[in-house]
Amino acid sequence: MSGFGGVLPWARRTLVEQDKVLSSEEFSAILGICQIVPGPNILNLAVCIGSRLCGAKGAFAAALGLTIGPICIVMLLAVLYQHYSNLESVQGLLRGISAVGVGLIASTGIKMLCDEFRYPVMLLVVVITVIAASYFHLGLGWVVLIVSPMALFLGFRKALK
Amino acid sequence: MSLLLGLFLKLSAFSLIAFGGINALLPSLLNLSVYQEHWVDLQTFADYFAIAQAAPGPNFMTVTLIGWHVGGVLGALLATFAIAWPSSILVYLVQRQILGISNEGKKKAIQYAAAALAIGLVLSSAWQIALQINHSYAAYGLTLLTICLTVFTRWHPLYLIVLGAVIGSMGLI
Lengths: 161, 173
Prior knowledge:
The complex is a heterodimer.
Chain A: H1 8-18, H2 24-36, H3 41-84, H4 88-116, H5 123-135, H6 140-160
Helix pairs in contact in A: 2-3, 5-6
Chain B: H1 2-15, H2 21-36, H3 42-54, H4 61-100, H5 104-133, H6 137-152, H7 157-169
């Protein structure tokens, strides 16, 4: 619920530093998996950690616990939006927030990109993905299918280094 | 009813290809819900995106809001469940296998490959979404400012969202 701007740092602080249910290495390893697997990353993390602690029931509880509060809040906001979306200032406010939101997504990508410069050939995967998706407007599924063999190949090369 | 079923099936399919998380999925989601299925118009999509960014919690709330638009509370729950269940079951099943790979190199290789793919998808997502929802030079300016501030400072994203809200409500965007 206090996950403004992403739940991840907060999850780490609670699970590793306060409750000590996971070691720092375990948390990083699990996070690594959740970023490989498609789907909402934070939800994947909840499923992994929940199942680690209490099996399938834990996974379900963790996923539900993570989503139910925010869903209620967001639906409340949706009702407010329905009533006030014709106001000039509300429209402007949302335009401002969405412009910032796009910037936040871009900077997530840029920060991750900086790590890739240690093995520059891998940037080829990034470039091809961007061209396929943004220039040729291929669907996400196609992009993943086309790019992943090359990504895996270079991934193995990078790991061997 | 068939509308809700379509929503559920289409979003479920997205769940399994969303490398890089929901952020990477946004252009496909926009394309599907605005141009193919006409669940929402472009302005409403942009507004829901903004609301989801400003609200606390996971970033897939854009999906929840589209579901809400299509079918009220039931639609919202169904959409959220649809985007969540395939990948959740996948990660539940594969986590042991991946943690169990004893070959450190193989594990690393998969991780590197997924990371590169995710970066490409997230960057092109930001680009495509910006083209769709930023309608003025001021909006692009604000997006660029956000990128600079997050890359070069350690400002909390919430401050940036508040900044965007203030600038926007003054009618500058």
